[in-house]
Structure formats: structure tokens, C-alpha cells
Design goal:
The protein is of the alpha/beta class and 271 residues long. The chain contains nine helices and nine strands. Residues 7-191 form the Ketoreductase domain.
């Protein structure tokens, strides 16, 4: 996909953050947009920010499998084709393995993994049909390394990475005209930390303040990096200097990265 002009792009979680910035960046490239979110107010603000582009907005809870499949059919009906799907919607949880509830664990997995998996599978036939398709799944740097108190988020984001990398290989082996990219953002200045659920012993204010210090990249910069990666057909799109650093450490050290994370976590997470 060397040109995005007139391509139909689907973006979940488009009501704020990276999702909103992606909608704006894709609109600037001439895309026709199918945007969704559970936050109708935020989604309306995103649509308003786009100006004169072809866009339709949809209320969508990505934890609802049936709703995702119905959404895929509706978008295909509304636009006549689907070329690009960005499974971006996500949530966060900060809690230890001992403390997190089953409900919170399921909440993260249903949105951050199953939302991506169902979103990919629901739209894949339409992407193949287009003859020029691309799946972009948002993982995280926490899909590259394990981090204390992020076991649920790690579980989802590692799963997204494995699922997406396997799909890319399948599409090549099956000679399907669908490219696949997995995105690993570092700290992005979005509202995800403020909206995160916390374990009962977590210092919520301290953790959110710490995240703000580590959020090195704006959503707009993240979106531009992702769009460039799509046009270059990159299999792994790293977003932000911290993402590049973590990827390099992981490649160089293997499992030996863990003492570094432990030292960082003792200072910043166990406060």
C-alpha cells in the first residue's frame, strides 16, 4: 500500500489519543474513514476535527465479539470496500498478580487482546477482497518485555504481538494481498494512564504522575510514525525513542534485561 488516497481506513478507539491522531493523519492522506469508540462524545470531537473528509462514526465496544463482526459488515456496506484496519482501542491495569481481580484481568484481555483478534478476523475477508489490504495491530513496548504490576497488560500485548506476527507470515505464505504490521508504542501522552484501573494497594496518583514523566511522545508524532510504517510495509513499527531503546535492550540482552527492569521498578513502581 504505497498510497493511502481514497483508501477506506477503519480505526477503533478513535475518540482520543493515538486513535484521534491517526484519524487526523489518515484524513490528511486522503483516506475515507470509519471511526469507532465507546466514548460517543470523544468520537464526535474527533469527527469535528477532521474537516471536509468522508467519515462515518460508529459506537463500538471491542470487547463484544458479535458487535465487531456486525461492525465489519456495516462498514463494508457503507463504504463498498475496506483497505486498512487499525485495531487501536485499549485499556490499562496496574496491579500485581496477587492483587488483581479476575474481573479486571478479563476486562483487559477482552479489550486489548480479543478486541484486536476479533477485529482482525472480522475484517480480514474484506481486506482480502479489496486486493490491497493492511492490518495494523497496536501492541506496546510491554509486548516486548515483562514489567511488574503489568502482568495483565503484558499478557494482552504479548498475545497481540504473537497473533499479528503469525498472521503476517500466513498472508505471505498464502499469497494474499494483505500486509500486516504490529505497532509497539513507548510512553505516549494520552489519557490511558488516567483511565487505568488500579490494584487496591497501588499509589494511583504517584503512578500516573510517573507515567506522565515517561510519556516522551505526542499522539500526533505517534500517528505519523505509524502511517509512515504502513506506507513502508514495516512488520514491526516502534514508536518513540523509549520503544527503540527497549527493543534494542531486549535484542541484546535477552532474558538478562529483567534485572534492569527490576531496579527501575523498585524505584518507580514500588513506592
Amino acid at each position: 500500500m504505497k498510497d493511502l488516497n481514497n483508501k477506506v481506513a477503519v480505526v477503533t478507539g478513535a475518540g482520543s489519543g493515538i486513535g484521534r491522531a491517526l484519524a487526523q493523519a489518515l484524513a490528511a492522506k486522503g483516506c475515507r474513514l470509519a471511526l469507532s469508540d465507546v466514548n460517543d462524545t470523544g468520537l464526535a470531537e474527533t469527527v469535528k476535527s477532521l474537516g471536509e473528509v468522508e467519515v462515518k462514526s460508529y459506537h463500538l465496544d471491542v470487547s463484544d465479539r458479535d458487535a465487531i463482526y456486525a461492525h465489519a459488515e456495516q462498514v463494508r456496506k457503507d463504504f463498498g470496500q475496506v483497505n486498512l484496519v487499525i485495531n487501536n482501542a485499549g485499556v490499562a491495569l496496574s496491579a500485581s498478580v496477587r492483587e488483581m481481580t479476575d474481573e479486571d484481568f478479563k476486562w483487559v484481555m477482552d479489550i486489548d487482546f480479543w478486541g484486536v483478534a476479533h477485529g482482525t478476523r472480522a475484517f480480514l475477508p474484506h481486506l482480502i477482497e479489496s486486493g490491497d489490504g493492511h492490518v495494523v495491530n497496536i501492541s506496546s513496548v510491554f509486548g516486548l518485555i515483562g514489567v511488574p504490576k503489568q502482568s495483565a497488560y503484558n499478557s494482552a500485548k504479548f498475545a497481540v504481538r504473537g497473533f499479528t506476527e503469525a498472521l503476517r507470515q500466513e498472508m505471505k505464505l498464502e499469497e494474499q494481498a494483505v500486509e500486516v504490521s504490529c505497532v509497539h508504542p513507548g510512553g505516549i501522552r494520552t489519557n490511558i494512564a488516567n483511565a487505568a484501573r488500579m490494584g487496591k494497594s497501588e499509589n494511583a496518583a504517584g503512578l500516573r504522575k510517573g507515567f506522565d514523566k515517561l510519556a516522551l511522545t505526542t499522539p500526533e508524532k505517534a500517528a505519523n510514525t505509524i502511517v509512515k510504517g504502513i506506507l513502508r510495509n514495516e512488520s514491526r513499527i516502534l514508536v518513540g525513542p523509549d520503544a527503540w531503546g527497549i527493543d534494542a535492550i531486549n535484542r541484546l540482552l535477552g532474558a538478562a534485561y529483567q534485572p534492569l527492569v527490576e531496579r527501575f521498578s523498585r524505584k518507580n513502581l514500588y513506592v
